[in-house]
Amino acid sequence: MSIKWFLTFLIGLSLINLTWGGEKSVTEVDFKQMTKEATAILSNLIKINTVNPPGNELEVIKYVANILDQEKIHYEILESAPGRGNLIARLKGNGSKPPLMLMAHVDVVGVEKDKWKTDPFGGEIKDGYLYGRGAIDDKGMGVAELVVLLQLKRGNVPLARDVILLLEADEEAGGKFGIEWLVENHLDKIKAEFVLNEGGRIITEPNNSKNVEFIGVQNTEKVPYNVRLVASGTSGHASVPLKDNCIFALSKALEKLSNWQPPVKLNPTTKVFFKGLAKNEKFPKSFFLSNIETPIIGKFCADRVANSDPILNSTMRSSISPTLLEGGIRSNVIPSQAEVNLNVRLLPEENIKDFVQQLQEVIGDDPRVKIEYDTSPHPHTPASPTDNELFRAMEKVGKKLSPEAVTVPLMSTGATDASHLRAKGIPAYGILPFPLDDNDLGRMHGHDERLHLDDLEYGIRYLYEVVSLVAKGN
């Protein structure tokens, strides 16, 4: 064996080892350790009460800032008002590609504490679940994104683009002190080629939280409006009934609305969504999902889908939910006015004025009942495209972690802060990366919100692999 040949052999061997080493660095990521760290952080963040109002998100922001200080990751804290903290952290890449931003809100909705089986702000771990307000929505997402950022830094992962982490305030109240303020005052600090936010879903089969059925990536969303029906009548003593009692007038209008649904209208996102969903369903549900807009049989199929799942029903059409009733000052006084708030979720392509006109036609021309409405805090925006690096990475990782699942674009029925970014031309996508069954989905904004630690690990792995692919430019 010549020395020249031997040296060539050694050089080749070293190159093979370098290649294997690169692959090994990905497979050697300790997701269980990441989950352990995330569990401790999430438990502590749940203990910081950020119910909005008043929010007080700054306490969470300071906690996260302390972690970033230890890791020497650059960040800024931006206060939109006293106590309303927003954090922007940035892990620098080589600049060959525009940034990728991960975002989550750290405020939460309120609780009925007496209805919970655990302390909603205790961060308790019980039977493999971490309980507390915000465990899923949205502190869990924020913590998963945080530990992904930490792992990229600790692993010295070569990045083609900056990775930004945005933790923001006030999402649950419309974003005035969070994303709306940031977009108006600091857009340059959060500009990115792609944004990953909440809003999508990883849904499991019914009664089987380990088998992922589909991965819905939110690329558009319905737009919320508050519409009020205000009924007027004659006031008087309750011992003398009056025919023009405003409560009767209001109840008649509500009765008409309860028997009406807005028409089915699919947009490009929901057309792909229902077709994709059909692939993992059995007949006849697969047939119904595939033929919602088919002539002659479309209405029949749409009705079957609507009756099978209230979320799918809301995905097909604009929707109305009565949420608040007001009227009366005493039990023995006939009120002169009563009103109900209708929480309307409008399809992004629809117009609120046209929709209110439809409502007027449904309730009729009773002069005692007027319709009022507010502007929405969320803009109507086009859907973010799905033919790009980020969406393809989400498809690839979804197939790797859950081979039987299908990844589809999703229009969320709820509003998210992503709409403000889409309005500025920034493609934004929603994914809540934790596999959730119907039971745990129903706990978001409800009682006993919780996140299984196995699902937290899945979500961390999913996010890390997606972010790695996109941030490295693979």
Short description:
Helices cover 39% and strands 23% of the residues. It is α/β, with parallel strands linked by helices and 474 residues long. Helix 2 (31-46) packs across helix 16, helix 10 (298-308) packs across helix 11 and helix 13 (389-401) packs across helix 16.
Describe this structure in words.
The chain has 474 residues and is an alpha/beta fold. It folds into two domains: 29-221 and 383-472, 3-Layer(aba) Sandwich (Aminopeptidase); 223-262 and 318-346 and 349-373, 2-Layer Sandwich (Alpha-Beta Plaits), CATH 3.30.70.360. The protein has 16 helices and 19 strands. The strands form five sheets. A six-stranded mixed sheet has the order 1-2-6-3-7-17, with helices on both faces. The chain is globular, with a radius of gyration of 25 Å. The chain starts with a helix and ends with a helix.
CATH names the topology of the largest domain as Aminopeptidase
Please give the domain count. 2
User: C-alpha Rg, in Å?
Assistant: 25 Å
CATH classification class of the largest domain:
Alpha Beta
Briefly note the structural class of the backbone. alpha/beta
Q: Tell me which oligomeric state these chains represent.
A: single chain
The CATH superfamily of the largest domain bears the name Zn peptidases
Report the β-strand fraction as a percent range.
15-25%
- Helicity level: 25-40%
Count of alpha/pi helices: 16
Strand arrangement in the largest pleated sheet: 1-2-6-3-7-17
Instruction: Report the span from N to C terminus.
Output: 40 Å
Task: Give unreliable regions as ranges.
Answer: 3-27
CATH architecture of the largest domain: 3-Layer(aba) Sandwich
What would you call the shape?
globular
Largest sheet: 6 strands, mixed
Mean pLDDT: 94
Q: Using DSSP, what is the number of strands?
A: 19
